[in-house]
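Weekly sync, protein design subgroup
Attendees: M.S., D.O., the rotation student, P.L. (late)

Item 1: inverse folding check
M.S. brought a backbone from last month's batch and wanted to see whether the design step gives back something sensible before we order anything. D.O. pointed out we never logged the input encoding, so this time it goes straight into the notes. Structure tokens as presented (63 positions):
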């Protein structure tokens, strides 16, 4: 008896893990930047940059 298949998931587990870890990296880098400089804008930019740059590396590392 064939099993009914539901719709495909919105995000795969791999994509969700990569994005979650990149957000955590961005929060850590942004927090450390804020603690070192006290400038909110610089901390936000550093956190967003770190999150974006870490995605390709994490994608290749987490298989």
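Designed sequence read out in the meeting:
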């Amino acid at each position: 008896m064939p099993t009914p298949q539901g719709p495909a998931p919105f995000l795969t587990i791999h994509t969700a893990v990569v994005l979650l870890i990149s957000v955590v990296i961005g929060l850590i880098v942004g927090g450390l930047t804020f603690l070192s400089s006290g400038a909110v804008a610089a901390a936000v930019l550093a956190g967003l940059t770190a999150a974006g740059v870490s995605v390709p590396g994490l994608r290749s590392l987490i298989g």
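Discussion: The mean pLDDT is 93. Helices lie at 13-37, 40-61.
Action: P.L. to compare against the previous round before Friday.
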